[in-house]
Design goal:
The complex is a heterodimer.
Chain A: H1 2-7, H2 9-28, H3 61-66, H4 69-73, E1 81-88, E2 97-104, E3 116-122, H5 129-148, E4 157-163, H6 168-181, E5 186-189, H7 193-206, E6 209-212, E7 227-229, H8 234-247, E8 252-258, H9 261-277, E9 280-287, H10 295-303, E10 308-312, H11 316-328, E11 335-337, H12 344-350, E12 358-363, H13 369-382, H14 388-408, H15 414-423, E13 425-428, E14 431-436, E15 442-443, E16 446-452, E17 465-470
Parallel strand pairs in A: 3-4, 3-5, 5-6, 6-7, 8-9, 8-10, 10-11, 11-12
Antiparallel strand pairs in A: 1-2, 12-16, 13-14, 14-15, 16-17
Helix pairs in contact in A: 5-14, 6-7, 8-9, 11-12, 14-15
Chain B: H1 2-6, H2 10-14, H3 19-38, H4 40-66, H5 74-89, H6 109-131, H7 136-156, H8 158-161, E1 167-168, E2 174-175, E3 178-179, H9 183-206, H10 208-218, H11 220-225, H12 230-256, E4 258-259, H13 266-279, H14 284-300, H15 312-330
Antiparallel strand pairs in B: 1-4, 2-3
Helix pairs in contact in B: 3-4, 3-14, 4-9, 4-12, 4-13, 4-14, 5-6, 5-7, 5-12, 6-12, 9-10, 9-12, 10-12, 13-14
The chains are: A alpha/beta, B mainly alpha.
């Protein structure tokens, strides 16, 4: 059997390429969204005597489902939404309901319905996958919400998502695919700083806006005029942590740091601020992202008898495990950290060991009305929530983009979009009245100090922690 | 003709079995045309990625295919070349960045490139002297060790490599005021280097030196009985191959303008070995074909339309994996290879 297959290798190749041809052909055809669910809305109730309007029904509802897929796919132009009014007679107190039906039908050129096309580059595979996947989901959810609410000036928003992993090379290829093949001028991304730093010089040269929700590397601040982010620079996070350590009376600090740019960046500024205030680092350990057991490193740290441990983790797994293992080894002093160990996964791993863990997280936290609404919607759609701040950041990015597109009215106008971002003041899921400074860095978001609650008190609403207040500045 | 109609497989015999190669070339030229049609800039980017990976896979094929030393540590030399380029060309503007700076040497690209190559070669000599004591399975394991060690050096030698932060703003090549800053110019430069590497490799494998290497691959003891100093030959090809990888690294660093240790993880090395095996062991054209197939497959997956937006990225990797498995199933000796590992 296999032998016969091998001999038919050429046939196999041709078959594969034909399949690919068909697949790619579909992919490059005009984007068509097939309406799967027919939303039936009761528009108005008319009380009083029976009013029966005879309206010629253009398309019976059943036909919607029977539209052959091939026909829909071959529609070269943008989709057209036809409103079909159907009058229904209801027995009893006569009420006329108008039923709105959306139908994907034959094209009539309607240029105003052409979608705004923007790109997204995220790490949906590879080392940053745990962030990238949920960030993409948050973005897609925001786009769907915007479209369900009627789009931007009546035009739908379309998001083209590419995988940029966490590497410079994939950042560049994804960027080139989006700008060159799809002709996108506005890109939401990337998840990781590595891909961001790879693509940023190109974006700066081409005049394409890069707008990231989660790349926190301090170097990105200098990357250029077209580079924006709602992610808070690591430097700011570290300064606050350093101040908290000092204010809490920690004098001899031990640090354990994941060897990633984010965690290293946080550690560096934390230690710099802590030492500036007069503190001393008595022990430091680093671990690679693939390490799963930290007992020996923690034992070394505890041997130096520190007043406090600073944990800078990038992955929730390591963050949770380190907290758990430090407590198992009998450490009773305070543990300080940033966002990651307060994530859902990390707290699940650490369990009760995480109680009392203090962390600096971006604020206002997601317990605001908008944030809470977003999180409950996200949970309803995807069944879980993790790293809520990054989700909110990605979600807000889409809405900010929509607001700016509404203003410029042109998805090819990167300069106008950039100017709009410089001018905008936004209130969304991650905070109120924040804006961007001349480097494209987000300002108006500040950090707060939180403390993780005992397991019994952790709920979805309180995100498992209580807010102790703003991070002390002095 | 009547016989051909009765038995279409006779056509295979008529072309001497080479129909496979033609089918491959047909598919690839079709895919290239598709990419060009999609967007010229994107195709140029893919071309550059392809050329860099082709240099790497041709160089690795010298070691794995022609000499029979299955090394999965090749990415280490790639990284050494890349970091040498990044560090040597970093100039005074780097001091102004707020984050920790590295030595600012400010060398031009064309001065730094030979050093990248030489440095990779130097490390290869030191490593190779030790590695020459091992064979077969053990060789795989020690080269695995080399990949891990080099990754950790890149990650932890922070004063030189900036550790996990990576080095950015690596300069593009420049000769007398004329810069290769356009994508097409850079592609041309990389292709020139690829041609040079292929030429050198071709000279090596067709020379008597290359035939001794093949003999070593087939039976090391027999080769040494005939009086060849096997270890010298193995060391020589190992160093040459590492230098080519260093060259690819230097080009890669300059092209992406940003490198961090994540670009040089073990996984990339395994990917490289798969490219070599996919293309065919002990064939230079095969490595070229393998690199091209791989780049086109991986990037072509971006055009797969059949999944919801949120999941298409993950699906890309799965489909890529399945296609690789299928290819190995149908062609265990690689696309144009004659020799099986």
């Amino acid at each position: 059997m296999m032998r016969a297959l091998r001999q038919n290798y050429a046939v196999f190749l041709v078959l594969v390429s034909l399949l690919a041809l068909v697949a790619m052909g579909c992919g490059t055809a005009a984007p068509v969204e097939v309406v799967k669910e027919v939303p039936v809305e009761v528009i108005k109730e008319v009380p009083g005597p029976a009013v029966v309007k005879e309206v010629p029904v253009e398309v019976p509802v059943e036909v919607v489902k029977e539209v052959p897929v091939e026909v829909v796919k071959e529609v070269p132009g943008p989709e057209v939404v036809k409103e079909v009014e159907v009058t229904v007679e209801v027995p009893g107190p006569e009420v006329v309901k108008e039923v709105m039906v959306e139908v994907v039908a034959t094209p009539t050129p309607m240029p105003s319905m052409e979608p705004f096309v923007i790109g997204a580059m995220d790490a949906v595979t590879g080392p940053g996958e745990s962030y990238g996947t949920v960030v993409v989901q948050a973005k897609q959810m925001a786009v769907d919400e915007i479209n369900a609410a009627g789009g931007i000036n009546g035009r739908p928003l379309r998001l083209i998502i590419e995988d940029s992993k966490c590497s410079g090379q994939d950042g560049i290829t994804a960027y080139k695919k989006l700008t060159d093949v799809n002709g996108v001028k506005i890109i939401l991304g990337t998840t990781c700083s590595g891909a961001m730093l790879g693509a940023a010089p190109l974006a700066e040269a081409d005049g394409v806006v890069l707008f990231s929700a989660s790349a926190t590397n301090p170097d990105i601040a200098e990357a250029g005029d077209y580079i924006f982010r709602t992610a808070i620079n690591d430097n700011m996070l570290g300064v606050d942590t350093g101040n908290v350590l000092w204010a809490d009376g920690v004098r001899n600090l031990a640090t354990i740091t994941e060897s990633t740019d984010y965690a290293e960046g946080v550690r560096r500024t934390t230690v710099a601020q802590f030492e500036k205030r007069g503190g001393q680092v008595v022990a430091e350990e680093r671990y690679g992202s693939d390490v799963t057991d930290f007992r020996s490193q923690l034992t070394k740290l505890l041997g130096k008898d520190p007043d406090g441990i600073h944990l800078a983790a990038q992955s929730e797994f390591s963050g949770g495990t380190i907290v758990k293992q430090a407590r198992e080894l009998g450490y009773e002093g305070p543990i300080y950290s940033e966002v990651v160990p307060t994530g859902t996964t990390a707290l699940e791993i650490a369990g009760d060991a995480a109680t009392g863990l203090k962390a600096i997280i971006p604020s206002p936290d997601l317990s605001s009305a908008k944030g809470a609404e977003f999180l409950s919607n996200f949970r309803a759609r995807y069944g879980f929530v993790t790293l809520p701040w990054f989700l909110g950041s990605a979600y807000d990015d889409v809405y900010i983009t929509a607001a700016c597109l509404e203003k410029t009215g042109d998805d090819q106008d990167a300069d106008g979009f950039r100017d709009c971002l410089y001018d905008i003041t936004w209130s969304g899921a991650i905070g109120d009245n924040y804006s961007f400074d001349e480097k494209g860095e987000v300002v108006g978001l500040s950090n707060v100090l939180v403390e993780v609650l005992p397991t019994a008190e952790r709920t979805e609403e309180n995100q498992s922690y209580k807010v102790l207040g703003a991070a002390p500045t002095e | 003709m009547r016989e051909l109609a009765r038995n279409p497989r006779a056509a295979l015999r008529l072309t001497g079995g080479n129909i496979e190669l033609w089918a491959n070339l047909l598919v690839i030229s079709w895919a290239v045309a598709f990419m060009l049609w999609q967007g010229v800039g994107f195709a140029i980017t893919l071309g550059t990625v392809f050329a860099i990976w082709a240099i790497l896979s041709v160089s690795l094929n010298l070691v794995v295919g022609f000499s029979g030393l299955l090394s999965i540590g090749h990415i280490g030399f790639f990284g050494i070349g890349a970091y040498a380029m990044a560090i040597l060309t970093s100039d005074a503007s780097y001091e102004q960045l707020r984050t920790e700076a590295i030595p600012t040497l400010g060398w031009p690209f064309f001065a730094a490139l030979p050093v990248s190559v030489a440095l990779a070669g130097l490390v290869a000599i030191l490593v190779g002297i030790v590695f020459n004591r091992f064979r077969d399975d053990i060789y795989v394991l020690v080269s695995f060790g080399f990949a891990i060690i080099s990754f950790n050096v890149f990650l932890n030698w922070r004063a030189l490599t900036r550790g996990a932060f990576g080095i950015h703003e690596i300069s593009r090549p420049e000769i007398g005021g004329w810069a290769f800053d356009g994508d097409l110019a850079f592609l041309a430069l990389v292709v020139v280097f690829l041609a040079a590497v292929m030429l050198v490799s071709w000279f090596i494998v067709t020379s008597s030196f290359g035939r001794v290497l093949t003999a070593i691959r087939e039976d090391e003891q027999a080769a040494s009985v005939f009086g060849y100093r096997v270890t010298h030959y193995k060391l020589a090809i190992w160093v040459i191959s590492a230098m080519m990888a260093g060259l690819a690294g230097g080009l890669f660093a300059s092209w992406t303008s940003f490198i961090d240790p994540n670009s040089f993880i073990l996984l990339e090395s395994i990917l490289l070995v798969s490219i070599v095996i996919l293309g065919g062991l002990a064939t230079i054209w095969g490595s070229l074909l393998g690199a091209m197939t791989f780049v086109l497959l991986e990037e072509g997956m971006r055009f797969l339309p059949f999944l919801p937006n949120e999941y298409v990225g993950q699906a890309r990797q799965v489909v890529l994996g399945i296609l690789l498995v299928l290819l190995m199933l149908f062609r265990p000796q690689g696309l144009v290879g004659r020799f099986k590992l």
